[in-house]
Specification:
Neuraminidase; four-stranded antiparallel β-sheet
């Protein structure tokens, strides 16, 4: 078949072939001797990148043309039909695509790399610019991304920018996917979820009653047929919240409001089951009706197995009888009889949305209560609700949360107010502080895998469209991937299982989902030396301070790669339970014999086989053959102490005749250029050009053949994601 006519061709020096430049997608079935266009082009014909997966799927990325955003297309039938699997608003042209093990990487001109770990599952793309899992800070003008085909799951990848090469070391936490657990039930708008072991309860505003999943299969639960009144209320209830009692997991509460048939008003109601949903009984309802009445939340006293609270807005009977009162809080101390907690003077009647309980104190029950209200901030009681004090008084607080084992910190989130949507209370100083970043927070969850920390928090934010997490108490927030959730889903609730630290559950507008989050990597890592069998060996140490509760018995994976005329990747060389490892296969040192560099990093694996992102990389000079092109320690350089930062010193002596000494320091291995220029910018001499290991250096500039005058010397160094340039002047006087 003769080659089709094209607009023009260009010669590709790498492949030594002439390629067509006509817009669209072309293919050759005879090793490039002739080319023809695919029968059906992608909708946007400006194809700028191609990749073929192991299954034969073709991926085509487009460039940004005439205001059109770049798009990633996928064909599963050899180019006959195409589906849009990307859609990257506002991004630069797609520059490359890499596919391995179902994982897809897409790089963009000026916009970094996006990634999905299962292209066959509907989900969102993760942006590595916001989740830095590379060992170095990346120049985000990425031109090429490739995967390591020796790693079958595609978790090891390389990115190439105009200035550097970067490597992703594996890990799955950035793009962990949510698991659909809606078997046997329609994916309705689910308002709240309460997991307990293999049983999960869920409620919906759009569908009365409560659904229960046992071992993954959902059924609806109702009061018995002979209880017509409870059955009618239960089926017509607009449910706001469902809660499993931590002291008795067979006891489940669901709450909300039921309509009054003769008006548009409601009564607030609370139902309970004591046999995991087989039967339900109404145990609390407001005495009268109102358009504002509803129950929104529930809290269990960690110190008292019977003392429970329900929050919202309703009217009811106070302790000791008397006139019915309007209140935000109801309490039981015996598990059966509920009473309204009277409002103190000045307490607003605005609905209360949530409550958190601090179990410290000398009583047999908890005294310290925190509650979030509409347009009234946070109310705190130090006497189990007898008296209340307000904070953040003009704000709508939709969620409050604390870790009962470390209750000095309380988190509160709600509607944005003066640019802030989240706050943190520190009990010892009785002060609230702003937390920047989140926007319009509706749920707060202390990460269940870190029961002894207050630093790990998940929230629902941005009008219930995003889930964010922090690992440092709110200083930095990152998006949690919504991969696996329906597109455009609304997250109504976020909960953990009181019997397990492993899963997090989400109630969404498209059903119920769960995720097994990957562990966090150790917060710090450093290289030490330990003598074994008479020789110094590399010892890698890392901080175990953020270890989660559901790790494998030996959770720390030690990775190693070596640089000698290229990368030699050893993969995981050890899996250990302690927070240090000595590599007895290497001998460390400095000097002419120690010319290789061994690099190490750590990942963590949990009982679900989820692997953390890698730590930073540490390195050690080790015994090996000389490495070409690398300036090693020698006379005039000192590697005994590694400097903390780049520097270029003033030459000495200055003025000079005819020679002077120039010193510089490198905190990391770097590509170095040190040049001398005259006052017109013309290059006079190149003193250093090549790779230097980290250390202190001294170079002599001999100006015997140069005339007197002012000169400039410039140091440029680039390495391990860092760059440095500095210029100084010197005077030659003959």
């Amino acid at each position: 078949m003769p080659a089709p006519e094209v607009d023009e061709t260009y010669y590709n020096e790498q492949t030594e072939t002439f390629l067509p430049l006509q817009k669209g997608l072309w293919y050759s079935n005879n090793s490039g001797q002739s080319w023809q266009a695919t029968s059906t082009q992608p909708p946007l014909p400006y194809v700028s990148a191609l990749a073929v997966g192991e299954s034969g799927d073709i991926f085509a990325g487009t460039s940004r043309q005439s205001g059109n955003d770049p798009v990633l297309y996928r064909s599963t039938d050899a180019g006959v039909t195409w589906a849009d699997v990307g859609g990257f608003t506002g991004k630069g042209s797609i520059t490359s695509i890499a596919v391995r093990g179902g994982r897809v990487y897409v790089s963009f001109k000026g916009d970094g790399i996006y990634y999905r770990d299962n292209i066959n599952v509907n989900g969102s793309w993760c942006n590595f610019e916001n989740n830095d899992i590379y060992t170095q800070t990346v120049d985000w003008d990425v031109r090429t991304v490739v995967v390591d085909y020796s790693i079958s799951d595609g978790t090891v990848a390389y990115a190439i920018s105009p200035t550097s090469l970067y490597r992703r070391n594996g890990g799955t936490s950035v793009c962990a996917y949510w698991q659909d657990i809606n078997t046997g039930i329609a994916k309705v708008n689910t308002q709240s979820v309460a997991p307990v072991g293999t049983t999960v309860f869920a409620v919906s505003k759009d569908k009365g009653g409560i659904s229960r999943s046992v071992s993954g299969v959902w059924t609806s639960t109702l009061p018995p047929n002979n209880d017509a009144d409870n059955r009618r209320k239960y089926q017509t209830m607009s449910s706001e919240y469902v809660f499993v009692d931590p002291a008795n997991i067979n006891k489940v509460y669901t709450m909300g409001k039921v309509p009054v048939s003769t008006s548009s008003n409601y009564k607030a109601v609370l139902f309970r089951t004591t046999n995991t949903g087989s039967n339900w009984l109404e145990i609390l309802r407001s005495n009268s009706q109102s358009s504002e009445y509803s129950f929104y939340g529930f809290a269990a006293d960690p110190k008292d197995a019977l003392r429970r609270y329900v929050v919202g807005k309703a009217n009811g009977d106070p302790v000791g009888g008397g006139s019915t009162i309007i209140t935000n809080y109801f309490r039981t101390i015996d598990g059966n009889t509920w009473y309204a907690i009277p409002r103190i003077d000045g307490t607003p009647t605005n609905p209360a949305f949530s409550m958190a309980i601090d179990p410290t104190g000398t009583n047999s029950f908890s005294d310290n209560l925190y509650s979030g209200l509409q347009n009234a901030g946070v109310y705190r009681s130090e006497d189990a609700g007898a008296n209340w004090a307000s904070s953040l008084s003009d704000k709508t607080i939709r969620a409050v949360s604390l870790n009962p084992s470390l209750p000095n910190y309380v988190y509160a989130g709600g509607d944005q107010n003066s640019g802030i949507s989240m706050w943190r209370f520190y009990k010892p100083t009785n002060t609230w502080s702003n937390i920047n970043g989140p926007n319009n927070v509706t749920r707060i969850l202390m990460h269940p895998s870190y029961p002894t920390s207050v630093q790990y928090v998940w929230i629902v934010s941005d009008n219930a469209t995003k889930i964010k997490q922090t690992t440092n108490g709110g200083a930095i927030w990152n998006d949690v991937s919504l991969g696996g959730l329906p597109q455009g889903t609304i997250i109504n609730d976020l909960r953990s299982d009181p019997t397990s630290n492993r899963y997090i559950y989400a109630a969404t507008s498209g059903g119920v989902y769960k995720i097994d989050p990957a562990p966090q990597p150790p917060s710090s890592i450093k290289m030490l030396t330990e003598t074994v069998n008479g020789f110094p060996r590399p010892k890698i140490w890392w901080s175990p301070s953020n270890v989660e509760s559901d790790l494998q018995a030996a959770p720390f994976q030690v990775h190693k790669y070596r640089w000698h005329n290229g990368i030699i990747d050893y993969g995981v060389i050890a899996t250990v339970s302690t927070n240090s490892y000595v590599d007895v296969s290497e001998i460390t040192g400095s000097g002419s014999a120690y010319h290789d560099t061994a690099y190490y990093y750590i990942t963590v694996i949990d009982i679900g086989n989820n692997v953390s992102d890698p730590t930073a990389t540490v390195k050690s000079s080790v015994y090996g053959e000389d490495e070409p092109g690398m300036n090693k320690p020698s006379v005039g350089s000192n590697q005994t102490n590694i400097p903390e930062e780049f520097s270029l010193s003033q030459n000495y002596p200055n003025p000079f005749n005819p020679a002077t000494e120039i010193k510089y320091a490198l905190p990391v291995d770097a590509s170095v250029s040190l040049k001398v220029f005259d006052i017109f910018g013309r290059e006079v001499a190149t003193l250093v050009s090549g790779n230097n290991v980290a250390g202190y250096y001294s170079v002599e500039f001999d100006a015997l053949k140069v005339s007197s005058g002012m000169y400039f010397y410039r140091l440029t160094a680039t390495g391990e994601g860092q760059s440095f340039t500095q210029v100084r002047k010197m005077i030659l006087m003959k």
